[in-house]
Specification:
α4 packs parallel to α6 and α5 runs parallel beside α7. The chain has seven helices and no strands. It has about 170 residues and is mainly alpha-helical.
Amino acid sequence: MSIDFNQNYFQLFEIECSVLIDHEVLEKKYLSFQKNFHPDKYVNGSDQEKRISLQITSYINEAYQTLKNDYLKSIYLLKIKGFEVDDQNNTISDPEFLMHQMELREESEEIQLKQDIKSNENFISKIKTLKDGCLENFEKNYNKSLYDEASSKIKEMKFYTSIENDFKRNL
């Protein structure tokens, strides 16, 4: 029972280090890892085996959660390249984007007051399109090694994810 903790998450799951990954391959590999390393499999094992199983499973779970989430995966890709994204200081100072944020928040509130299913679906679709655009622009910048620009797309993606989560929570 062993795993190389020095591998990055893409190497661990044997998938290409890329923004766009095959989620089916990720899922199959994850289930295979769970089958081989899950702590329940070592319930009768030694304390060391149980501890190692737990460490491996924790690492696998963290890797899986990161790779299946576009936002977390984007931050991780930059981290691999040695570019740290300050996730806590996620301020965007672009006045145009700030205005866009305010408009989306207002639109979100208006739609929630209407309580119209079609409007809700359209707004969620709009946010998904905006997030997809961020990811596409992140990928372009990342592939050109423009990490500052790629990082700004991550910050935008975080905003869209936040407004989407707030919107869904208030439905």
